[in-house]
Amino acid sequence: MSRTLKIYVFFLLVIIALFIYIDAIRPKPVDWTPSYDLRDKIPFGLYIFDQESKTLLSPNKVIKKTKTLYEFLDPLYNADTLVKNYKIKGTILNICDNYILDDQSTKELFYFVSHGNTAFLSVQNLPEMFTDSLKIEIKSQFDLNDKVDCWLANPNLGKEKYNLNQGAGSYYFSKIDTLYTTVLGYQGTEKKKYVNFVKVNFRQGSFLIHLQPTAFTNYHLLKDNHSEYTEKILSYLPKNPIYWLIKDQNGLIESGSPYRYILSQPALKWAWYLFFIGILIFMIFNAKRRQRIIPIIKPLSNTTVDFTKTIGNLYYQEGDHQNLVDKKIIYFLERIRNEYLIETSTLDENFIKKLHAKTGKELKDIEHLVYLINYQRKSYHQSIESDLIEINNAIEKIIN
Length: 400
Fold this sequence. Notes:
Elements: H1 3-25, H2 47-51, H3 53-56, E1 62-65, H4 69-73, E2 77-78, E3 85-86, E4 91-95, H5 103-114, E5 118-122, H6 128-134, E6 137-139, E7 149-152, E8 162-163, E9 172-175, E10 181-188, E11 193-202, E12 205-210, H7 218-222, H8 226-234, E13 242-245, H9 260-264, H10 266-285, H11 304-318, H12 321-340, H13 349-359, H14 363-378, H15 385-399
Parallel strand pairs: 1-13, 4-5, 4-13, 5-12
Antiparallel strand pairs: 2-3, 6-9, 7-8, 7-10, 10-11, 11-12
Helix pairs in contact: 1-10, 12-15, 13-14, 14-15
């Protein structure tokens, strides 16, 4: 390694170490992205709720489902029985900033609830299928710049108000069907309050719809006494198994890149980028280095053909035509066995048909060659030069 190259490498290592040190000591910015991912420990992730779900949802049994709701419920429906019903009873739980269920799963959810079950949805908005079916309207005209308090309508749960201004949604129920809907909670101020939590009866079951999912995030579960608000909301869940829908929220969707962990860590990511930048600089400054001349090595000549010609000429000059004829026949039959996998012990009509089918040569040429071979095998006289030439020409027509 030259002295100049050593200097380049030294400065590159110093730069990499400097970047790593600066990245390590600088304060990490807070990520306020509303991910609602069970793995995320950022303010608006669901890591703490996931870890404490058994306590918060006690004594209910919590079962996480990574399938779509349709894939989960459809096989559990008893369509062949006299009383059509589901094999399970319980509550569907879904917490997310935006409604993520597909249309088929939404229809299945309504069908499941209509059979005497419950669905708890904490989302900021709902599709038109929901609002039309439940006769409710949701609007977003709430001014979040003011103080935002949330509280429960039931005085038995206390009259305390919880400030959820950080990350709070602007959605509220602007219209409800009072015949089937019960107001469970509000948000806003003393002067203006808006409904944000309702229970809607639907046939034999009911929907619990809450429009402030931020109450279940890491930030509010750890801030002041906001966890009490979450516990009060969950107290409305009936005492039966809870099926928590976590598809696309449990971290199963990951990058397919083998470097996903390196790229997910800021320090490792920059070290990786600097490594490639260093390699690029190294290639630029060393592109003109001299390459040692690579000698041309001639391949070994194939002497098999020359040897064969020599032996053939020897037999021919000696006048041993019979020996040459026998070797020609042996070589030809050996090639037929190896290339076309045809048995050559008996050269009869069956052999002729098989050879004709596999080689595509003229039938009369094959018959003529077989005749010559059989004649040579049965003949007692020594072959002459004309016999050698004739059988050689006949073989050439077949194998060429």
